[in-house]
Amino acid sequence: AKSGGRGVVAFYDLQMDQTVRARRRLEADLRGAIARNELRVVYQPVVDADGRPISYEALLRWRSPDHGDVPPDVFIPIAEDTGVIIAIGEWVLREACRTAAGWSEGLSIAVNVSTVQFRVANLAEQVGLILSETGLAPARLGLEITETALMRDRDDTLEILRRLKAMGVKIIMDDFGTGYSSLSNLQSFPFDKIKIDRSFISAMEADRGAKAIVKAIVGLGRSLDLPVVAEGVETEAQHRIAVQEGCAEAQGYYFGAPGSPPDAVGVEPPRTSD
Ligand code: C2E
Ligand code: CA
Ligand code: CA
Ligand code: CA
Fold it and tell me: What are the EAL domain coordinates in residue numbering (predicted)?
């Protein structure tokens, strides 16, 4: 393994260097993305058992002139590492609440909140300010958090969640089934709803185990009084099974991909003079 070893090392060094540099460029460009108007929010419907939209999930999109469309799975972790998620997270919240305030009152909005945002102690205050600023009723806002958000600083996180809950905001456990110590988290934190991770939904048809897990989660939700949402529903069959297993709500390409927000209801469209 010695002969040619140098070449190999040099090759990897070069690759690593390029990766590090690409990442630095992404980091730097992400910092200015809000100011340069490169971020936007798309909305994906969440439907009830009859297939009617009752809520929308706000999902971030970043279109960079240099990097093209960067998927959130790539830029959110970078934003978290660099702390830029604090500013971006606040921007998404404001944008989504402002948009949802124009919808009919039967529709709510769900916004993803990163672990890092819980480490700014004023998250509850920030949400309160945005709600009063946009006029959105607190009960129409849901915050989606994953279990990793609960792992760190449990007491502080719990305190923030309690304050949000006291304001009337809904707390949604996202990607349920993929994290750690799920069951005790459901009991200790003030959740209003559970979203089953889409890996179980997509496996449900072919894999009895996945279906059994969905059934078990729904049963657990029922005993804890938590409605369950099936995520990533792509086919009619998946929806049928999800409803049959007792999922109260569903979300996925089958009902609509993330896109433009629904029309505002009861709000006059702005008139243009030309
Ligand atoms: P998530 O919160 O689990 O969001 C659901 C993801 O599944 C979205 O990907 C959505 O487009 C995708 N999806 C929806 N229906 C289907 C389906 O039927 N099939 C498949 N295969 N996928 C479906 P997206 O928009 O790329 O977002 C990826 C992740 O990035 C999100 O996962 C969330 O963790 C994170 N993210 C997105 N926007 C935000 C944000 O504003 N703040 C934070 N903190 N994270 C965000
Ligand atoms: Ca989510
Ligand atoms: Ca999810
Ligand atoms: Ca996810």
Answer: 23-272
